[in-house]
Specification:
The chain has about 210 residues and is α+β, with helices and mostly antiparallel strands. Helix content is about 55%, strand content about 15%. The protein is built from nine helices and six strands, in the order ααααβαββααβαββα. The strands form two sheets. It has a four-stranded mixed sheet. β1, α5 and β2 (about 100-105) form a beta-alpha-beta unit. α1 (about 1-25) packs antiparallel against α2 and α1 runs parallel beside α9. This is CBS domain-containing protein. Pfam families: CBS (PF00571).
Length: about 210
């Protein structure tokens, strides 16, 4: 599913480029030649398509994406405790409109015991007919020993691949201690914003704003 989404974003981006070039060049032969070289009129291999995508994203890190979530989000996250009941944890998620919570160790504000997600609730509470009011977070969370994590200096494309390969939507960002949470929504938003920036620069180039 994730690979299909990224492919869709890439196709949409190429279509926007095509429209921009044709609109600003009158559809002449030079514009068609440019489109052909960029892969908008010819079929490129998946490797070439990925290279095109990486040109604008290869230097972006997880820390950059966390910054785009707002300065107040860097170094802050919504959390719960191992002994909290699952019902309260789900209400916490709903209140903040998020899909996961960091589970902190007792008496510790910086080191995590695991994470709990909507998927944990569906599979281990609803799927097993358990009561969320009488089940502790620690009973259904993903334990720290099984967690897949990234660092703040991890390349965003590496994080994207990690999430895709492991079929996960949330990864803690750990630099010795918890510094944030990265979601697949954050990653997709970063890809879209970067591609929109590339499109703007291309438009400026076509219009002659670059010399």
């Amino acid at each position: 599913m994730m690979q299909g989404l990224i492919q869709g974003l890439r196709s949409c981006w190429q279509e926007k480029i095509k429209v921009a070039i044709l609109r600003n060049s009158g559809g002449n032969s030079n514009s068609k030649s440019m489109l052909s070289r960029m892969g908008c009129f010819t079929v490129t291999s998946s490797h070439q398509a990925m290279e095109m995508e990486e040109k604008g994203l290869e230097n972006m890190t997880v820390a950059d994406v966390l910054m785009t979530k707002g300065e107040e989000s860097v170094g802050s996250w919504v959390s719960c405790r191992i002994n909290d009941n699952v019902d309260d944890a789900m209400k916490n998620m709903a209140q903040h409109n998020i899909g996961s919570l960091v589970v902190l160790k007792p008496g510790d504000q910086q080191h995590i015991a695991g994470i709990i997600t909507e998927r944990d609730y569906l599979r281990k509470i609803i799927g097993q007919g358990r009561s969320p009011k009488y089940t502790r977070v620690g009973e259904i969370m993903t334990d720290e020993k099984k967690l897949i994590t990234v660092k703040s200096d991890t390349r965003i494309l590496q994080a994207m691949q990690l999430m895709t390969d492991n079929h996960i939507r949330h990864v803690p960002v750990i630099d010795g201690r918890i510094v944030g949470m990265l979601s697949i929504v954050d990653v997709v938003r970063a890809v879209v914003e970067e591609q929109n920036g590339e499109l703007k620069r291309l438009n400026d180039f076509i219009k002659g704003d670059y010399y």
